Amino acid sequence: MRASALRHSYDGVHFAVCQTDFTVPAGTSLAVVGAGGAGKTTLAAIVAGLLHPTLGQVRLHDDVGDVEPADLDSLGRTAWIGMIAQESHVFAATLRENMTLAAPDADDARIRGALDAVGARWVDALPAGLDTVVGAGGHQLDVVAAQRLALARVAVTDPPLVILDEASAEAGSSQARELDTAAAELARGRTAIVIAHRLSQARQCDHILVMANGTVVERGSHDELLARKGRYATLWQAWTKVADA
Fold first, then answer.
1. How confident is the model over 74-117, as pLDDT tens digits?
2. pTM of this prediction?
3. Exposed/middle/buried for 223, CB within 10 Å: 0-12, 13-18, 19+?
4. For the chain, percent helix, then strand, then coil, each to nearest 5?
5. CA-CA-CA-CA dihedral for 18, 28, 208, 152, to nearest 10
6. What's the CATH code, domain 2-244?
7. Is the dihedral of CA 162, 203, 188, 156 positive or negative?
8. Among candidates 131, 160, 132, 166, which has minimal Cα distance to 148?
């Protein structure tokens, strides 16, 4: 995918994303890093086609041609893009129904394969398996289980591009490590954009963009950015102190 000269303003005055360009080669991963308000989530929404940029464009490519995400209908967007947002929704329905919302033709083998791929082993303990009602009025899922369900819902649709904007687990916690592993499995073999709320997520990616005030201020690999001793290196040093505390 390629983003060219992206600019986006919510109010027509202030830009949440300013003159941003980047390319993510097929099958590679890109982390987007920055403090709150840097423009990370706005950028993710633009790439996902949920926002049409004020200026510039995003193009997704495959063997047939290319498209702009904002021009896709809901079915087309699901076929191209899988997104994990900061809040994962568990619908008051059976686990099977939760899994087939975006993939109504998925059979049980495909559903279980997607759940297994993200390490959702808690499914085996459910009283009625895939027929167990989850969410309000049913079996309650904890934060990690709900996020694994969200990851599995993307896995079952098998899109070529995944966007991960997950922020529910505390840095350094076992929950964070579990979710990082599950997300890495989902991203494997796909083009991935990771909105890195924990820098452990960024370290796993092929390339990193560092944003500040809507602008890309650094780019490179984890090792390259540490060697430059710039903004990313400062963020990494601060984050590792918190994660190790």
1. 878 888 999 988 777 899 999 999 999 989 999 999 999 999 99
2. 0.88
3. exposed
4. 40, 25, 35
5. 90
6. 3.40.50.300
7. negative
8. 166
